[in-house]
Automatic annotation (TrEMBL):
<protein>
    <submittedName>
        <fullName>Indoleamine 2,3-dioxygenase 2</fullName>
        <ecNumber>1.13.11.52</ecNumber>
    </submittedName>
</protein>
<dbReference type="GO" id="GO:0046872">
    <property type="term" value="F:metal ion binding"/>
</dbReference>
<comment type="similarity">
    <text>Belongs to the indoleamine 2,3-dioxygenase family.</text>
</comment>
<keyword id="KW-0560">Oxidoreductase</keyword>
<dbReference type="InterPro" id="IPR037217">
    <property type="entry name" value="Trp/Indoleamine_2_3_dOase-like"/>
</dbReference>
<keyword id="KW-0479">Metal-binding</keyword>
<dbReference type="GO" id="GO:0033754">
    <property type="term" value="F:indoleamine 2,3-dioxygenase activity"/>
</dbReference>
<keyword id="KW-0223">Dioxygenase</keyword>
<dbReference type="GO" id="GO:0020037">
    <property type="term" value="F:heme binding"/>
</dbReference>
<dbReference type="Pfam" id="PF01231">
    <property type="entry name" value="IDO"/>
</dbReference>
<keyword id="KW-0408">Iron</keyword>
<dbReference type="InterPro" id="IPR000898">
    <property type="entry name" value="Indolamine_dOase"/>
</dbReference>
<dbReference type="GO" id="GO:0019441">
    <property type="term" value="P:L-tryptophan catabolic process to kynurenine"/>
</dbReference>
Length: 227
C-alpha cells in the first residue's frame, strides 16, 4: 500500500455504529476520526460508508449470478440480477442524499484538501518528499471514492456472456449507468465548478483528471446494454 491516504483507511475502516445491534445506515453510524471535523466532513464520509453497506446484497449475489449464467439458468439469473438492481437503486438513493449535510463549497474548500494527495496537486507540483524513504519527492494520488471496489466488482460480474435474461441484465446496467451519472453530477457540483476558478484545472478528490474519466465510465456502462 502506498504511503498516502486511501479510500479503505479513510472510510471503510474509520466508523462505528451508535447502536451496536442496529443497521449500518445513516443515523446509526459515526466516524472514528476526522481531519478538520464538522458536519460536512462527517456526512461526506458516512454517505460513502452507507453506500458500501447497501452494496452488500449485490456483492452476495455476484458469484451465484455467474454460476447461473454458466448453467443457462434464466430464472436464477433474473433473480440474482433483480437483487443487484435493487441494491444499486438503494446505493443511488443514498448518494442522492449527499447534499443534505455536505455543502459543495465547504467540501471543495475544506473537506477535500486532506484527501488530495501529492500528484496532480497544484499546491505540491513536485510531490511530497518522504525523508528516509526516497531521495526524490513522490507523486501519489490521494483518497477518492473511485477506489471503492463495489462498482468495479459489478462491472466484472456483468462481463459474463449469456443469451438470456436480457431484461434483468439491462435493468442492472440502467441502475449502474444512473449511479455513475449521478456520481459525475456530484463531482461537477462539488469540484469542477470551483476548480475552474483556480489555476491547475479540474482535478478529482485524489488529484486525478476526473470529469473525462467519469464520463467514460458512464458511457462504457451504457454501451454494454444488451439490445
Amino acid at each position: 500500500m502506498p504511503p498516502v491516504l486511501v479510500y479503505s483507511t479513510y472510510n471503510l475502516l474509520n466508523w462505528r455504529r451508535l447502536d451496536p445491534s442496529g443497521p449500518i445506515a445513516l443515523g446509526n453510524i459515526v466516524c472514528l476520526n476526522n481531519f478538520l471535523g464538522g458536519v460536512d466532513e462527517e456526512w461526506f464520509r458516512l454517505v460513502h460508508v452507507s453506500i458500501e453497506a447497501a452494496a452488500g446484497p449485490a456483492m452476495a449475489r455476484l458469484e451465484a449470478l455467474q454460476e447461473a449464467a454458466r448453467k443457462d439458468d434464466v430464472e436464477g439469473m433474473e433473480a440474482h440480477l433483480g437483487a443487484v438492481q435493487g441494491a444499486l437503486a438503494e446505493m443511488q438513493r443514498l448518494l442522492s442524499r449527499m447534499g443534505e449535510k455536505c455543502d459543495p463549497a465547504v467540501y471543495y474548500a475544506r473537506v477535500r484538501l486532506p484527501m488530495s494527495g501529492w500528484r496532480g496537486n497544484p499546491r505540491l507540483p513536485a510531490g511530497l518528499l518522504y525523508e528516509g524513504v526516497a531521495p526524490e519527492p513522490l507523486q501519489l494520488y490521494g483518497e477518492t471514492g473511485a477506489q471503492s471496489s463495489v462498482v468495479a466488482a459489478i462491472d466484472a460480474a456483468l462481463g459474463v456472456e449469456h443469451e438470456c435474461g436480457w431484461e434483468a441484465y439491462n435493468g442492472v446496467m440502467a441502475e449502474l449507468e444512473a449511479f455513475r451519472a449521478q456520481h459525475r453530477a456530484f463531482a461537477a457540483a462539488y469540484i469542477a465548478s470551483f476548480a475552474k476558478k483556480e489555476a491547475g484545472g479540474e482535478k478529482g478528490t485524489g488529484g486525478s483528471d476526473f470529469m473525462p474519466a467519469l464520463a467514460g465510465f458512464r458511457n462504457t456502462t451504457a454501451a454494454h446494454r444488451l439490445l
